[in-house]
């Protein structure tokens, strides 16, 4: 499921910005990293993950 979401989001990012440069990949990678950090922070706050 995660790969489906990632591939769909990445494809949309490339199509939306025409894919002429590396910016779609850089933007998509940065956004996904931020989402992961936010999710991890929420899990730690709820006490479900220990560092």
Number of helices: 2
Shape: elongated
- The tally of strands reads 0
| Proportion of strand residues | under 5%
What's the mean pLDDT score?
81
Terminus-to-terminus distance: 26 Å
Order of helices and strands: HH
Structural class comes to: mainly alpha
List low-pLDDT spans: none
Main sheet makeup: none
Radius of gyration using CA atoms only: 14 Å
The percentage helix is: over 70%
Topology summary:
Elements: H1 2-16, H2 23-46
Summarize the structure in short.
With 51 residues, the protein is mostly helical.
Question: Can you describe this structure?
Answer:
It contains 2 helices and no strands. By secondary structure, it is mainly alpha-helical. Helix 1 runs antiparallel to helix 2.
